[in-house]
UniProtKB/TrEMBL annotation, chain A:
Predominant location category: membrane
ABC transporter domain boundaries: 21-273
Family per similarity comment: Belongs to the ABC transporter superfamily.
InterPro entries in the record: AAA+_ATPase, ABC_Ni/Peptide_Import, ABC_transporter-like_ATP-bd, ABC_transporter-like_CS, Oligopep_ABC_C, P-loop_NTPase
Membrane topology: Peripheral membrane protein
Gene Ontology molecular-function annotations: ATP binding; ATP hydrolysis activity
One Gene Ontology term, aspect cellular component: plasma membrane
Designated name of the protein: ABC transporter ATP-binding protein
Subcellular location: Cell membrane
GO BP: any one term: peptide transport
Protein keywords: ATP-binding, Cell inner membrane, Cell membrane, Membrane, Nucleotide-binding, Translocase, Transport
TrEMBL record, chain C:
Family per record: Belongs to the ABC transporter superfamily.
PROSITE patterns: ABC_TRANSPORTER_1, ABC_TRANSPORTER_2
Keywords: ATP-binding, Nucleotide-binding, Transport
Superkingdom in the source lineage: Bacteria
GO biological process, one term: transmembrane transport
Name of the molecule in the record: ABC transporter ATP-binding protein
GO terms of molecular function: ATP binding; ATP hydrolysis activity
Domain named ABC transporter: residues: 4-251
SMART domains associated with the record: AAA (SM00382)
UniProtKB/TrEMBL annotation, chain D:
Organism whose genome encodes this protein: Nocardioides jishulii
One family name in Pfam for this protein: BPD_transp_1_N
Topology term for the membrane: Multi-pass membrane protein
Name listed for the protein in its UniProt record: ABC transporter permease
Record InterPro entries: BPD_transp_1_N, MetI-like, MetI-like_sf
Automatic annotation (TrEMBL), chain E:
Name used for this protein in its record: ABC transporter permease
Alphabetized Gene3D superfamilies for the sequence: MetI-like
Biological process (GO), any one: transmembrane transport
Lineage, broadest ranks: Bacteria, Bacillati, Actinomycetota, Actinomycetes, Propionibacteriales
InterPro entries: BP-dependent_transpt_permease, MetI-like, MetI-like_sf, OppC_N
Length: 287, 512, 283, 354, 282
C-alpha cells in the first residue's frame, strides 16, 4: 500500500486486540407498508485481525442487512438493536449516533458492494470522489495531495494509467476497473477492517478472480481484516479463513472454512455444500 | 397621480381614470366601440356642445340643451333646412393652425368618404344632412350646414364628438396616396381645436390627454387626463376606493354600496337613456304575436331584479322608451303573472312555450348571467320555459344580434341622441340599420319618418305620442331596467355632469 | 446429421449508441447438437453466447449462415411455418420472473404452448396436461391459479421449464437457466433438467457462466471468445486438456468449493488496462 | 475519450449516449421540421374555422360590397393553397398578419406582450422549482415521517387546486383581507408608467432606467401571480423530486457515499446531482406548458401578456391573434425542448462524454 | 380466449381499500357526489332564483349561502357535479376510445409509428388550453366540443404512454418467450402486451379525469362550454370571482373546493392504482 495514504490509527496499532469486530445479538426490524419484517434476528459474529471471514447463505437470509446494520446504514424505517458491537479502537459502537458513525465509516471500516457502477457517482469525476472523501473526514488534505493519494491508490489496485481514470467518469470504466476504483476508494483512509458485500458477483470469472486476489492481497499484505459476503462456496473455500453460515436471519453455523465445508454439522449447511455440482456425482437434491 | 388621499405622483391637474377598455385607435371615421367615442370626446371640438348648466335630476340633457362651441352663433332658416354657423375667430389648433371654413368642409367631406361610417350611415343621415352637399362655405368664417328636411336633432348631432372639426391643415400633411384621409395618422393623433390634445396612446392599454396651450377658452383646472384600461370591474372599484384613480367607468354593480360607503369615493347617479332589454327576433313565429311579448313583459318582476342584481341603483323600466328622454310615458309591463298567463292563453300558447334566451356578459354586463337566471325563473312561473344560453364570444354575440339568429337575448341600448324620435327611429324603424329586432310596422314607419323631418314642437310631439301608442301595443322590445349614468368618482371631484355623448367634460371638473 | 446444425452463423448488431461501431456478436459460428445431448457454451460476458442461443431458435435473424433444426432450414421458413416449427424448440431464460407474464396465472402460462400448437385439445385435456407437467417439475397443483409474483425464484424457474417442455420439444435452449437462483435451488433445477432430458431425449444448448454447472451437466462444451467458438470438446477432455489459451484461463479462474484444493489464481492477459496481479500470465 | 471497451461486466453503461454536437444538430433538424408542422397546423386552424372575418372587420354598418372588398384585401377569396403559400412567405419575412380588432401587426403585439408573460412564467417556474425541489427532497429524505406527510398533504392539495382558483384565493387573502399585496390589476400601480422600453420586461427595464421605486413596484405586482403559478407547479416539482431524489437516495452510490462516511449534506448533494437532469427536464416541460397555459391566471391578474391577449383574441374571433399565439407558443415550446435536450446532455457526463 | 386458469382478483380491491385510505375516501366522495347530484332531493332547485334573497352568507337556511341571483349555492354546487363530472367522464371515455387503438398503432415498429409520434411531439407543443378554448368557442360553444377538446388534449398522452410502455414491454423476456413459443402477433398483443398496460392506462385514466375536471372548470370560468343557468363549478367561480372582493367568498369558494376535492380524489386514486400495479406486477 502506498506511503502517501493516511493512517490515522497507526498509534493504536500496537494494542489492536485479537478481535477486530465483535457483534453480539444484532437484530434488525424494518417497517414496511405490508407490516414489520425482521430480516436479522440476533446475529453473533466476530472478525479477527488479519483474517477474511466469509458469510454465506441463500438470497434474502439477511447477509447484507447484517453488515448494513452494523454500520447503521439502514434507512429511517428500520430499528437496529444489539447487545454489543465492539470495534477495535472505537469500543462499543452500538450506541453511536449517526454523527459518530460517520467517523467510523470509511475510516475504521471500508465498504465494497456488488455493483461497482452503482457505487460511484455518475456525475462527478473519479478524482472529485476521492477528494470528497478526504474532505468528509477532515484530513486536511489539499486537492493536489488528494490527487496524488488517489493516483497511488489506483496504482495499488492495479490500474495501469490512473490519471485517465481520475479525470474520467464512472460510465467510462469496465466492470472490473470500476470495482477496482471502488476498492481504492474504500481503502484510501486505510481502514483496518473491510466489509465486502458480494464484490464480484456479476463479474466474469476471470475478472472475479483478479478482484478476489486483489482484496485478499490487501488483507494479507497490510494486516487488515475483512468480512466477505458471498454466495459462492468456491470463493469461501479459496479465500476465507473462517466462515459464518446464515439462514433466515440467524447464524446457523460458524467455524473455520475447513471444518464447515468438509464436515458441516447443520443440515442447512450440509444441503448447501451438497448442492455444488460435482461431475460424475449425482446431485444432492433435497426438494 | 390620483385624487383621493393616497400617494400623489403629479399635480392635482392630473385626472386619472380607469375604463373597462381604452380605444385601439382614434380616427373618428372608424367605429371601434364606445371607449373610442369617449376618448374622441376628450379632444375633439364640435361646432356646438352640450350645455351642462341645463342638467336636471330626472331627464337627460335634451337636443336643445346646446351652447356655442367652435361656432360662436348660428341661425336656422325659416324652412328649418339651413343652419348657418359663424365660426369663432382666432381659434387655434394644438398645431397653431387657425380654424376656418375649410376645416369644417374638409371634416365633413372626410366623414362622407366612408359611407359606412357612423356619421354618414347613422348620425348625419338621421339628422337629414344632405349627403351631396353637407356643408357650404359662405366665407372664411361662416359655413352653412344643409339639410334635406327639417330635423329636431340637427344641433345635437353636431355636438356629437365624432362629428367634430379637424385641423385640416395639419391632417392633410399626413395624407398619402394609399391613405387619402390620413387615417393612419389620425388613428394615433389628435388634430382638433379642443381643450385637450392627445399626449400619447398605447392601443387598448391607455390614452393620455394634455391641455392644449392654444385652446381658445378658459384654462381648465384639469390639465392632464390619463385613462387606462382595467377590464376587471372589481379591480376598478378597488382602485377607486383606494384613491388610486379619480373616476371609474362601469363600476361593478354589486359593489356600488361599498363605493358609496368608502371614504374616498362615491357613485354618481345621473339620468341617462341607457336601458337593459330583453330583445327578440320578431321574425320568430312564437314571438310574432304581441300578446306573447306582453305576457312575457308582465311575467317579469322588474322590481325584484332591480333590488337584487342592481342593488337598487337602477330603476325598473316601466315605460316604452327611456324615461330620461321624456317624462310621463304610458306605463308598460307591470308585474302581473296572472295577466301574463291570461295573455298566453289568449295567444293559444298556454301549454308550454319554449324559447331560447341568450346572453353575453359583455353586454349588458357581467351580471347578464344572473339577469338571465332571474328572467328564466319568472318566465317559468307563467309556464314559459326559457332555455338559457351563454355566448362566450362578444363578437359572436353581436354577429348573432345583427343576423337575428337568436330567438331572445338580453341586450342594452343607449341612443346617441337624447331624443325620443331618434331613439324610436333607431331601434324600431324598418329602415334603420340598428333595428335589430326586425320590427316592421308600416304605420309606425310612416309616423317616424315624419317625425324625423319635423322640427321640435307640438306637431312632432303629437306624432311621437302616436308612435308610442303603437310601441305600447306591440312591445317589440321588452325593457327590463333603466340604467342611470353610473360613475364611480372621487369624493373631492366636483362638476361631473353626465353627457348624452357618454363622455365627460374634463375641463369643467374641479377639485375641492 | 445432428438434430441441430448451426453453420457459419454471422450476426452483426447495429451499434446501440449513435456513433459507436457496430458489434459483431457472432463471427461465423458453427455448432451441432445431437438428440439427447447437452452442449454447453461458456465464455465471458459479451462473447455472444446468448446471441448464439437466440439465433439457434431464430429469435433473431442472422446475417449469414444456416441453422437447420430437425431437417428444416429455419431461414427458409415463412412466418407461419416458423411459428408451427416452434413447437419443437423452446427456451428457458436466466431471469425466471421476467420471463413470465406477470398478469397470467401460472396454469395459463404453462398451458400457452398447447393452446398455440394444439388447439385441437379441449380445455379439459389442456388442463390435465398442465397439472401433469406441473407435477413433473415439482410445482404444487394449487399454484396453478397464482400469479408469478407470488412464487419463489426457484418455483418461477420451474414454471419456465414446465412451459418449455409441455409441448414436448426436441430442442431446448437454456440461457443461464440457473445463474440467478440460489445454490441449493440451482441444484434442484439442474437435476430436474437432467431428468427431463433422460426421459424425452431432448437436445440441450446450455449457455452458462458457471464451470461447476457446465462440468456437471454437459456432454460437450463450446468455448466462445469475442464472437467465435475457439474450442469445442467433450466435457472431460476440455477440462483435462484444454487446448486454447482462453479456455485455460477460464479453467484457472474456476474456484473449487473444496477448501482442500486451494490453488493459486492464474490470470489471463485479456484485459490490457489492468496490470497483472498474479505472476503467471499466458497467452 | 475511451478508457476501455465496455466489457467484462454485466452492468452496462446507460443507453443514452451521444456526442454533444450530434445531439445539437439532430435536435435542430427536428426543430425545423416540427416548426413547420406547427406553422401548417396554425394556418389550418384559422383557415378552416367557420366565421366571417371580413364582416367582423367591416363593422355592423358595412354594406355587402364593402365586406367583399375587405375579403379581397385579405385574400380570403383565393384558394387555400395560394393563401398558404402567402402565409408561409409572410412568415419568412416576419409578417404574421394584422389583428382584426386592434389593426396592429401581430408581430408588434407579440413583441409587446411576450416579455410580460416570459417574466411571469420564468419567475414562477424558478420559484416552483426551488420550492418543489426543497419540499420533495425533504419528503424523500424523511420518507414516511412527518416532513414527508406534511409535504405530501400540501403537494396533493396544490396539485389539485385549479391555478385560477388559487389566484382568486390569494387575491382574497393577501389583497382584500390582509392588504399586503397590490391590487391585481396589471404589472404596475395605476399611477405608474412603464419605463422606457429596452427588453420589454418591466422589472428589467426599470433597473436599466435606474428607477428603483418602479423596480420594487413591478416586483410587488409580480408577487401574487408568480406565487399562484409557483405554488401549483411547485406541487408537481415536489412530486417529481420526491420520486427521483428518493430513488437517488436509495441508489447504491448514495449508500456507498454514506458507507464512506461522507456528511449527510454531501450525501444529499450526491443524490441531488444524480436527479438534477430529471428536474431540469421537468422545469423545461413545465415552462413550455405554461406558455399559454397560464392564460387564465393572466386574466385573473389582468396581466397584459400573450395569454390574456390570446384569450381575448379568441373571444373576439380575432383569428390572426389566435394563429399568432399558437405559432409563438408552439415555436417557443419546441425551442425550449431543444435547448433542454442540449442542456441535459451537457449536464450529464454520461451523455456528454460518449 | 378463455383462461385455463385464472388468478382470483377480489383480493386486489381489498388491498387497495386497506392500504390507500385516501383513495378509498376519494372514490366514496365522488360516488356520493354523483349520486347526490343525480338523485338526491336538494334543499332548493339549483336553477331557481330569488331576487330578494341574493348574496346571503352561509347559514342554517342556505348552508353554502346564496349567489347574486339568490340561488342556493349548496344546491348548485352539488348539482354542478352532474354536468361537470359527466363531461369529464365522457371526455375521458372518448380519449380512451381514440387513444388506445392509436397508441397500439404507434407502438408498432416501423416508420409510420415513428412519424405519428413525431407529429404528436409537434402537436403537443401547442398551447392546449388555448386550443381547446378556440375549438369550443369557434364552433359556437357546443357542449360536445368540450368533450372533443378534452379528447384532443388527452389522446396524445395516451398514445405516448402506450407507446413507451409497450415498447419497453416488447423488450421484456416474457414477450421473447411468447415469440419463442410461436405465438402469433395478435396473441402477443392481446394476451401479453395489453393486459400489462392496463394498470398504467388506468392510472392515466384517473389522471385524465382529474385533468378534464380542471379543463372544464377553466373553460366555464371563461364562459365557454357549460353556460348559465346550468350550474357548473367553473361558472360559479367566475360568477363569484367579483364577489370575493366584496367579501362574499362562498360562491366561488365552495365551487372551487368542489373542483379541488374531485381532482384530489382522482389523483389519489391514480396514485393508489399506480402503487398497486407496481407492487403486484413489477
Ligand atoms: N428496506 C427493506 N424493506 C423491506 N424489507 C427489507 C428491506 N431490506 C431488506 N429487507 C428484507 O430483509 C431480508 C434480508 O435481506 P438482505 O438484503 O439482507 O438479504 P441478503 O442475504 O443480502 O440477500 P442477497 O443474497 O439476495 O443479497 C429480505 O427478505 C429482504 O426482503
Ligand atoms: N440487440 C442488440 N443490439 C446491439 N447489440 C447487441 C444486442 N444484443 C447483443 N448485443 C451485443 O452483442 C454482443 C454479444 O452479446 P450476448 O448477449 O450474446 O453476450 P453473452 O455472451 O450472452 O453475454 P452475457 O454473459 O453477459 O449474457 C455484446 O457485445 C452485446 O452488447
Ligand atoms: Mg445482499
Ligand atoms: Mg447472455
Amino acid at each position: 500500500m502506498s506511503d502517501l495514504s493516511v493512517a490515522p490509527l497507526a498509534s493504536a496499532a500496537e494494542d489492536v486486540p485479537e478481535t477486530v469486530l465483535d457483534v453480539r445479538n444484532l437484530a434488525v426490524s424494518i417497517r414496511t407498508p405490508d407490516g414489520v419484517v425482521n430480516p436479522v434476528k440476533g446475529v453473533d459474529l466476530s472478525v479477527r485481525k488479519g483474517e477474511i471471514l466469509g458469510v454465506v447463505g441463500e438470497s434474502g437470509c439477511g447477509k447484507s442487512t447484517t453488515i448494513k446494520g452494523v454500520l447503521k446504514l439502514l434507512g429511517p424505517n428500520s430499528t437496529v438493536t444489539a447487545d454489543r458491537i465492539e470495534l477495535a479502537g472505537h469500543g462499543d459502537i452500538s450506541g453511536h449516533s449517526v454523527k459518530q458513525m460517520r467517523g467510523v465509516r470509511g475510516r475504521a471500516v471500508g465498504f465494497v458492494v456488488q455493483n461497482p457502477f452503482g457505487s460511484l457517482n455518475p456525475i462527478y469525476t473519479i478524482e472529485r470522489q476521492f477528494y470528497e472523501l478526504q474532505k468528509a473526514h477532515g484530513t486536511g488534505v489539499s486537492k493536489r495531495q488528494s490527487r496524488d493519494i488517489a493516483l497511488a491508490m489506483l496504482d495499488g489496485v492495479g490500474i495501469v494509467r490512473p490519471e485517465r481514470v481520475l479525470d474520467g467518469y464512472a460510465h467510462q470504466l469496465s466492470g472490473g476497473m470500476a470495482q477496482r476504483v471502488v476498492i481504492a476508494l474504500a481503502t484510501t483512509l486505510s481502514p483496518p477492517l473491510l466489509f465486502a458485500d458480494e464484490p464480484t458477483t456479476g463479474l466474469d470469472a476471470t475478472v472475479q478472480a483478479q478482484i478476489l486476489d486483489l482484496i485478499s492481497g490487501l488483507v494479507r499484505d497490510e494486516g487488515r481484516s475483512m468480512l466477505l459476503v458471498t454466495h459462492d462456496l468456491g470463493v469461501i473455500a479459496q479465500y476465507c479463513q473462517r466462515v459464518v453460515v446464515m439462514y433466515g436471519g440467524e447464524v446457523v453455523e460458524e467455524g473455520s472454512v475447513h471444518d464447515v465445508m468438509v464436515t458441516p454439522t447443520h443440515p442447512y449447511t450440509q444441503k448447501l455444500i451438497g448442492s455444488v455440482p460435482k461431475p460424475g456425482e449425482k446431485l444432492n437434491v433435497a426438494r | 397621480g390620483g385624487g383621493g388621499g393616497s400617494s400623489d405622483g403629479g399635480s392635482d391637474g392630473v385626472l386619472s381614470l380607469a375604463w373597462s377598455s381604452t380605444p385601439t385607435q382614434l380616427d373618428p371615421n372608424v367605429y371601434t366601440g364606445l371607449s373610442w367615442v369617449h376618448a374622441v370626446d376628450g379632444f375633439m371640438e364640435t361646432l356646438v356642445e352640450y350645455d351642462t348648466s341645463k342638467a336636471s335630476d330626472d331627464t337627460v340633457l335634451g337636443v336643445d340643451a346646446v351652447k356655442p362651441g367652435l361656432a360662436e352663433s348660428w341661425e336656422v332658416s325659416e324652412d328649418g333646412k339651413r343652419y348657418t354657423f359663424a365660426l369663432r375667430k382666432g381659434v387655434k389648433s394644438e398645431y397653431g393652425n387657425e380654424l376656418d371654413a375649410d376645416d369644417v368642409l374638409w371634416s365633413f367631406e372626410r366623414m362622407y368618404s366612408n359611407p359606412a361610417s357612423l356619421q354618414a350611415g347613422v348620425l348625419l343621415k338621421s339628422a337629414n344632412v344632405d349627403p351631396d352637399e353637407p356643408v357650404t362655405k359662405i366665407d372664411s368664417h361662416t359655413v352653412r350646414v344643409n339639410l334635406t328636411a327639417p330635423s329636431a336633432i340637427a344641433l345635437s348631432v353636431l355636438a356629437y364628438p365624432i362629428d367634430g372639426i379637424l385641423d385640416s391643415d395639419e391632417t392633410k400633411k399626413h395624407v398619402t396616396k394609399e391613405d387619402p384621409w390620413a387615417a393612419d395618422w389620425l388613428a394615433k393623433n389628435s388634430a382638433s381645436f379642443g381643450a385637450y390634445k392627445v399626449k400619447s396612446m398605447d392601443p387598448g392599454k391607455e390614452i393620455r390627454l394634455e391641455y392644449n396651450e392654444n385652446y381658445w377658452g378658459e384654462k381648465p383646472e384639469i390639465t392632464e387626463v390619463i385613462a387606462k384600461a382595467v377590464p376587471d370591474a372589481s379591480a376598478r372599484a378597488q382602485l377607486l376606493m383606494s384613491g388610486d384613480v379619480d373616476a371609474i367607468a362601469e363600476p361593478p354593480i354589486d359593489q356600488l354600496k361599498k363605493i358609496d360607503e368608502s371614504a374616498n369615493a362615491e357613485v354618481s347617479i345621473q339620468p341617462d337613456s341607457n336601458r337593459h332589454n330583453l330583445s327578440f327576433n320578431l321574425g320568430d313565429k312564437a314571438l310574432a304575436d304581441p300578446r306573447v311579448r306582453k305576457a312575457i313583459s308582465h311575467a317579469i318582476n322588474r322590481e325584484a331584479i332591480v333590488e337584487s342584481i342592481y342593488q337598487g341603483y337602477a330603476k325598473p323600466a316601466n315605460s316604452p322608451q327611456a324615461s330620461g328622454l321624456m317624462a310621463g310615458q304610458p306605463e308598460t309591463g307591470a308585474y302581473d303573472p296572472a295577466l301574463a298567463k291570461k295573455l298566453l292563453a289568449e295567444a293559444g300558447v298556454d301549454n308550454g312555450l319554449k324559447i331560447d334566451l341568450s346572453f353575453s356578459t359583455a353586454r349588458p354586463g357581467p351580471y347578464a348571467e344572473n339577469l338571465a337566471r332571474l328572467v328564466q325563473s319568472d318566465l317559468k312561473a307563467v309556464g314559459i320555459t326559457a332555455n338559457v344560453k351563454g355566448v362566450p364570444s362578444p363578437a359572436d354575440f353581436e354577429a348573432a344580434v345583427s343576423d337575428r339568429t337568436m330567438q331572445a337575448y338580453l341586450y342594452s341600448e343607449r341612443p346617441s341622441q337624447p331624443d325620443l324620435g331618434f331613439s324610436l327611429f333607431l331601434y324600431l324603424h324598418s329602415g334603420s340599420a340598428l333595428n335589430k329586432v326586425g320590427f316592421a310596422d308600416d304605420e309606425f314607419d310612416s309616423i317616424i319618418s315624419k317625425v324625423l323631418v319635423t322640427e321640435s314642437g307640438d306637431e312632432r310631439d303629437a306624432a311621437i305620442a302616436e308612435a308610442m301608442d303603437i310601441v305600447v301595443e306591440n312591445e317589440p322590445i321588452i325593457s327590463l331596467v333603466e340604467m342611470p349614468d353610473l360613475v364611480g368618482i372621487s369624493s373631492d371631484l366636483k362638476g361631473y355632469v353626465s353627457l348624452p355623448t357618454g363622455g365627460m367634460k374634463y375641463d369643467e371638473l374641479k377639485r375641492g | 446429421m445432428s438434430l441441430v446444425e448451426i453453420s457459419d452463423v454471422v450476426k452483426t448488431f447495429a451499434a446501440r449508441q449513435r456513433g459507436a461501431d457496430p458489434v459483431q456478436a457472432l463471427k461465423g459460428v458453427s455448432l451441432s447438437v445431437d438428440e439427447g445431448e447437452t452442449v454447453a457454451i461458456i465464455g465471458e460476458s459479451g462473447s455472444g453466447k446468448s446471441t448464439l442461443g437466440k439465433a439457434a431458435l431464430r429469435l433473431i435473424d442472422v446475417d449469414s449462415g444456416s441453422i437447420v433444426v430437425d431437417g428444416d432450414d429455419l431461414g427458409s421458413l415463412d412466418a407461419r411455418r416458423m411459428r408451427a416449427k416452434r413447437a419443437d424448440m423452446q427456451v428457458v431464460f436466466q431471469e425466471p420472473f421476467e420471463s413470465l407474464n406477470p398478469r397470467l396465472a401460472i396454469g395459463s402460462i404453462i398451458a400457452e404452448p398447447l393452446q398455440i400448437h394444439r388447439p385441437d385439445l379441449g380445455t379439459t385435456e389442456i388442463r390435465r396436461q398442465v397439472v401433469q407437467t406441473m407435477e413433473r417439475v415439482g410445482l404444487p397443483e394449487a399454484s396453478a391459479n397464482r400469479l408469478p409474483g407470488e412464487l419463489s425464484g426457484g418455483q418461477q424457474q420451474r414454471v419456465g421449464i414446465a412451459r418449455a417442455v409441455i409441448s414436448r420439444p426436441k430442442f431446448l435452449v437454456l440461457d443461464e437457466p440457473t445463474s440467478s437462483l440460489d445454490l441449493s435451488i440451482r441444484a434442484q433445477v439442474l437435476a430436474l433438467l437432467a431428468e427431463l432430458q433422460q426421459e424425452s431425449r431432448m437436445a440441450y444448448l446450455f449457455v452458462s457462466h458457471d464451470m461447476h454447472t457446465v462440468e456437471w451437466i454437459s456432454d460437450r462444451i463450446a468455448v466462445m471468445y469475442l464472437g467465435e467458438v475457439v474450442e469445442t470438446a467433450p466435457t472431460r477432455q476440455l477440462f483435462d486438456a484444454p487446448t486454447h489459451a482462453y479456455t485455460r484461463t477460464l479453467l484457472s479462474a474456476r474456484l473449487s468449493a473444496d477448501p482442500r484444493d486451494r490453488h493459486a489464481y492464474k490470470a489471463f492477459a485479456g484485459d490490457a488496462t489492468v496490470r497483472q496481479t498474479s505472476s503467471e500470465a499466458s497467452t | 475519450m475511451t478508457l476501455a471497451p465496455v466489457k467484462g461486466a454485466t452492468v452496462r453503461t446507460p443507453r443514452r449516449v451521444s456526442t454533444p454536437w450530434r445531439l445539437v444538430l439532430g435536435r435542430l433538424g427536428f426543430l425545423v421540421a416540427a416548426l413547420f408542422g406547427v406553422m401548417t397546423l396554425s394556418f389550418l386552424l384559422v383557415s378552416v374555422t367557420p366565421g366571417d372575418p371580413a364582416r367582423l372587420i367591416a363593422g355592423p354598418l358595412a354594406s355587402d360590397s364593402q365586406v367583399e372588398a375587405i375579403e379581397a384585401e385579405l385574400g380570403l377569396d383565393r384558394p387555400l393553397g395560394e393563401r398558404y403559400v402567402d402565409y408561409v412567405a409572410g412568415l419568412v419575412k416576419g409578417d404574421l398578419g394584422t389583428s382584426y380588432y386592434s389593426k396592429q401587426p401581430i408581430v408588434d403585439e407579440i413583441a409587446s406582450k411576450l416579455p410580460a408573460t416570459l417574466s411571469l412564467v420564468l419567475l414562477a417556474v424558478l420559484l416552483a422549482a426551488v420550492l418543489g425541489v426543497v419540499v420533495g427532497s425533504l419528503g424523500a429524505y424523511f420518507r414516511g415521517r412527518w416532513p414527508d406527510s406534511v409535504g405530501r398533504l400540501f403537494t396533493g392539495i396544490f396539485q389539485a387546486v385549479p391555478d385560477f382558483f388559487l389566484g382568486l384565493i390569494l387575491i382574497y387573502l393577501l389583497f382584500f383581507v390582509a392588504g399586503i399585496a397590490p391590487a391585481p390589476a396589471g404589472q404596475l400601480a395605476f399611477s405608474e408608467s412603464p419605463p422606457p422600453k429596452v427588453t420589454g420586461a418591466i422589472p428589467i427595464d426599470a433597473l436599466v432606467a435606474g428607477d428603483t421605486a418602479l423596480f420594487v413596484s413591478s416586483l410587488q405586482h409580480l408577487v401574487l401571480p408568480v406565487l399562484t403559478l409557483a405554488l401549483v407547479y411547485a406541487a408537481y416539482f415536489a412530486k417529481t423530486a420526491r420520486t427521483t431524489v428518493g430513488r437517488a437516495l436509495n441508489s447504491q452510490q448514495v449508500h456507498f457515499a454514506r458507507a464512506m462516511g461522507l456528511r449527510e449534506r454531501t450525501v444529499l448533494r450526491y443524490a441531488f446531482v444524480e436527479s438534477r437532469t430529471t428536474i431540469v427536464t421537468y422545469a423545461g416541460v413545465i415552462f413550455a406548458a405554461l406558455l399559454g397555459g397560464e392564460a387564465i391566471v393572466e386574466k385573473v391578474f389582468a396581466w397584459d401578456g400573450i395569454g390574456t391577449w390570446a384569450l381575448n383574441g379568441i373571444l373576439r374571433l380575432d383569428l390572426p391573434v389566435v394563429q399568432g399565439m399558437v405559432l409563438v407558443a408552439g415555436a417557443l415550446t419546441l425551442i425550449t425542448y431543444t435547448l433542454l435536450d442540449i442542456v441535459v446532455g451537457l449536464l450529464d457526463p454520461r451523455i456528454k462524454h460518449a | 380466449m378463455p383462461d385455463v386458469f385464472a388468478a382470483p382478483r377480489g383480493h386486489q380491491l381489498r388491498l387497495l381499500v386497506k392500504q390507500h385510505p385516501g383513495a378509498t375516501v376519494g372514490v366514496a366522495f365522488i360516488v356520493l357526489l354523483l349520486l347526490a347530484s343525480l338523485f338526491a332531493p336538494l334543499p332548493y332547485d339549483p336553477t331557481a332564483t330569488n331576487g330578494s334573497n341574493a348574496l346571503k352568507a352561509p347559514g342554517a337556511e342556505h348552508w353554502f349561502g346564496t349567489d347574486g341571483a339568490g340561488g342556493d349555492v349548496f344546491s348548485r354546487v352539488i348539482s354542478a357535479a352532474r354536468i361537470d363530472l359527466s363531461l369529464a367522464l365522457a371526455g375521458t371515455l372518448l380519449s380512451l376510445v381514440v387513444g388506445l387503438p392509436l397508441g397500439l398503432v404507434a407502438s408498432g415498429k416501423g416508420r409510420a409509428s415513428d412519424w405519428l409520434v413525431r407529429g404528436l411531439d409537434a402537436f403537443q407543443a401547442f398551447p392546449l388550453l388555448i386550443l381547446a378554448l378556440a375549438l369550443v368557442s369557434l364552433s359556437g360553444n357546443r357542449l360536445y366540443m368540450v368533450v372533443v377538446a378534452i379528447a384532443l388534449i388527452n389522446v396524445p398522452r395516451y398514445i405516448r404512454l402506450m407507446r413507451s410502455e409497450i415498447l419497453s414491454l416488447r423488450e421484456s423476456r416474457f414477450i421473447e418467450a411468447a415469440i419463442a413459443m410461436g405465438a402469433t402477433p395478435g396473441r402477443i398483443t392481446f394476451r401479453h402486451l395489453l393486459p400489462n398496460v392496463w394498470g398504467i392506462v388506468l392510472v392515466q385514466t384517473s389522471l385524465t379525469i382529474a385533468n378534464a375536471i380542471v379543463v372544464i372548470a377553466s373553460l366555464s370560468f371563461l364562459g365557454v362550454g357549460v353556460s348559465a343557468p346550468t350550474p357548473s363549478w367553473g361558472g360559479m367561480i367566475r360568477d363569484g370571482a367579483g364577489n370575493m372582493s366584496s367579501g362574499e367568498w362562498w360562491i366561488a369558494g365552495f365551487a372551487g373546493i368542489a373542483v379541488l376535492l374531485c381532482v384530489l380524489a382522482f389523483n389519489q386514486l391514480a396514485d393508489a392504482i399506480g402503487d398497486r400495479t407496481a407492487r403486484t406486477y413489477r
